[in-house]
């Protein structure tokens, strides 16, 4: 079996890392993989095991030339199936390219953004099957008219191994300029509006009054950074909030957090939450999209209504004041990741869909 994978993301965020897991797992199972990705991207530099990488121009939704370039690649390489892993034009233009080349096509849907029933009726004709990374996303597509037989849920996975090692607390505090007695909450997400950073900043002044040792580390990068920094300064929160940027060494430090906060308005599943659970970090997040599948309320963390600053603050206050609860949630989260979110299960799930599509 030969699969052409298309990943248009330029950075190695959660979705792109899932693609690496998939192609390496498929290669270990004897599948031949070809990965098309943007020239100069982090993905192009990864060179995953058992996969030939083709770096090419991918200009996003407005780059209609992607159709021609991808169709030419498909005709030259003759894959059995095309797997489109992202948006940024790869979904629509990649679907058209596969259709023009006469090759079956599968789309991975990683976000729960709503689409109109008309858009779903037209766009999803391009795909032989759709794989969602959470049941929440699958339900969104079903509600918008996609036929149940055309969509399957294969949850994202996490390689827990890098997150299992204990974190040296003194080294952690030194790395991020924190006092030894700091209680540390982290946010691991792109700096974009739907990730909900503003809700945490709104809740923070009242939390600091009750927990003066509380510090917040904001991991990630994105277009909202300047606005968030200005908001922190204007609110007088600069002493409590650190912007760390995108960290390639995140697995080394994630377990040093006392809690992870993810107050997103919408989310497909939330790979950073799976990583935090693997690191035995308790979580406060939103009851939105696939997040309730990543976090079990009252077992591995606390779920809040999306956008509810008061509920978010109350959940953080509860965890900040109860070390035993944090430890219990963290241990349960790690056990659940090891049992339910393995890379092997995700790879086998994708391979099962390929065989189903090719069998037809």
TrEMBL record:
This is Glycosyl transferase. GO terms for molecular function: glycosyltransferase activity. SUPFAM superfamilies: UDP-Glycosyltransferase/glycogen phosphorylase (SSF53756). InterPro entries: Glyco_trans_1 (IPR001296), Glyco_trans_4-like_N (IPR028098). It holds the Pfam family Glyco_transf_4. It comes from the Bacteria. Residues 175-335 form the Glycosyl transferase family domain. Residues 14-160 form the Glycosyltransferase subfamily 4-like N-terminal domain. The keyword Transferase applies. The keyword Disulfide bond does not apply. Keywords: Glycosyltransferase, Transferase. Belongs to the glycosyltransferase group 1 family. Glycosyltransferase 4 subfamily.
